[in-house]
Amino acid sequence: MKRIVLILAAAAAICVSASAQSKSFTLGKWVEVQNAILKELNRSYVDSLEVGRIERAAVNAMLEALDPYTVYVPEEEQEDFQMMLSNTYGGIGAIIYKPDPDGNVIINEPYANSPAAKAGLRCGDEIESVDGVSTHGLTSQESSDRMRGKPGTTVLFRVKKLRDGDGWKAGDVIDLPVVRERIVLPSLSYVGMLNEKDGYVLLDKFTDGVGQGIRDAYHTLRAQGMQRLVLDLRGNGGGLMNEAVNIVSLFVPKGSVVVTAKGREAGSEAVYKTKNDPVDLEIPLLVLVDSGSASASEIVSGALQDYDRATIVGTRTFGKGLVQSIRPLPYNGQLKLTTAKYYTPSGRCVQAIDYSHRNEDGSVGHIADSLTHSFTTAHGRTVKDGGGITPDFEVKAHRYSRLTYSLVYSGILEQYALEFVRRHAEIPAVDDFHFTEYEDFIAFAKDKEFDYRSSARALFDEMKKSLAEDGLTEAMGGELDALQKSLEMDKETFLRLKKDEIIPFIEEEIVVRYYFQEAGIKVRIRYDEQLRRALEQPAISI
Questions:
Q1: Fewer beta carbons under 10 A from the terminal one: N or C of the chain?
Q2: pTM, full prediction
Q3: Is the CB of residue 250 less than 8 Å from the CB of residue 287?
Q4: CA 124 to chain centre
Q5: Using alpha carbons only, what angle is made at residue 379 by residues 374 and 380, rounded to the nearest 5 degrees?
Q6: How far apart are CA 374 and CA 384, in angstroms?
Q7: How far is CA 427 from CA 253, 422, 515, in A?
Q8: Domains, the chain
């Protein structure tokens, strides 16, 4: 018997060794083949060879075959990558845009207390040059790259002022030095009371320290009479896992499991538990989510749902249950590598592995019930996996018209806001400001080029193309003409029809240029129908 056991053990060892050798051989084979191809191309290809470009394309294609989140970051892209991770960069702290490719760069919006704001750059100011280099020949990105730099260094702008103020006259051209600083974009965008009992926190990203920020926000709102906390994670694409754990730890007992990460290798499982004492185990929590809520947002909403600690309201989340790690590469490159899947306390994995069947925004599409598995929350409620976190109460967001989207994406609203700022030195406080010059906006917009077709008219135009391809246009001429006439609507008429829908966007564009980003969020909350309906939902029954 002992001899048989030894033989079996030896055979198993041989199989493991053979498997390892097979993997090593396959890897070595393809590295050798790739090198041989490159050498042959370099020696014999008919045109000059851009080795860097084709190698980068090969690396990107290789990683795209794995998942959408494993990416190569070369040295020259490190600053943008670090900004993505930390929400910080060295610069002047302003949003710019270039409406005319042959014109100047415009200061669209300086951040509050930024170097740009402190130096006197205002909304609508034209940047004629950056450190002596004209912006006429630069794109917005190229101009932005010149404005960024090491904190403490100075960048010199030649500026044409939009309006009177700060000791200058409208039209003055001045040289304005700005000392760059480390710009920290806030992840905690807004903290405030919605009414007498509901505190509200808008969290845009899970960056370093945001857990402490939520803790501080809780105490601030509690002191103002908060009886329920609303945590808004809509559109929050995630970030640092440890900060997700820190946020959950505020509202569940110390030592609770928040998330479990499981990799391919044996023994790679990591369990993340709360390490700090909670601030409140009783206050009702309302968490808002949508298809843009991903990764760390799904860890927080999934854990609080599994513990029956919060009511999750909105629409199903994105469905990204993967953990990425950073690995150093030669020549100061980095590899952002998917190393594990994560699981909520009940055992759910929110990842939908089928990357091909997704919605237009990348979020998980329809999941058949036969492909899902049931799990149980702390108080016995049934929750399912298969892709994303399904809210306890579904409340859909308002669907805007095609016209409104077109006004936003074409920049018409931005352009009008700058024109409004040029003509108005000041506006009332945010809570008192209401836009009343809509006819003026129509007069401005009607002469601008943008696609103002309704969704029905756009579909009709696509249908006409298909009919033409099938040779059916002539046969259906009369019907098509009648339908087209019924769908016709001139630009001014359509703008008036959608007045109530467009005004909130105009108000938001205007107030941020006088009172910065927080003011825009206040306006957004004022008209947020999904938030209003979410507040009406009952607490989950446990």
A1: N
A2: 0.86
A3: no
A4: 26
A5: 30
A6: 5
A7: 48, 12, 10
A8: 38-66 (no CATH), 88-184 (2.30.42.10), 188-397 (3.90.226.10), 402-454+489-533 (no CATH)
299-325: per-residue pLDDT in tens?
A: 999 999 999 999 999 999 999 988 888
> What's the one-letter identity of residue 507?
E
CA 485 to CA 164: how far, in whole Å?
Answer: 49
Can you tell me the distance from the alpha carbon of 233 to that of 283, in angstroms, rounded to the nearest whole number? 18
Look at the block and give the residue holding tokens 């969020």.
521
- Per DSSP, the residues of 19-86 read HHHHHHHHHHHHHHHHHHHHHHHHHH-SS---HHHHHHHHHHHHHHTT-TT-EEE-GGGHHHHHHHHH
Q: What are phi and psi of 158, to 5 degrees?
A: -100, 120
In the numeric block, which tokens belong to residue 385?
Answer: 């996996």
Give residue-wise pLDDT tens across range 368-402.
666 678 999 999 999 988 788 999 999 999 999 99
**Residue 4's pLDDT band (cuts 50, 70, 90):** low
3-state secondary structure of 375: strand
Fill in the amino acid letter for 23: K
The identity of residue 96, as a single letter, is I
The amino acid occupying position 357 is H
pLDDT at 342: 93
Q: Does residue 222 have a pLDDT over 90?
A: yes
Asked whether residue 8 carries a pLDDT value surpassing 50, the answer given is no
Q: How far apart are the first and last CA of the chain?
A: 57
Per DSSP, helices labelled H in 286-334 are 296-306
Roughly what angle, to the nearest 10 degrees, separates helices 51-64 and 2-44? 140
Whether 428 shows a pLDDT value over 70: the answer reads yes
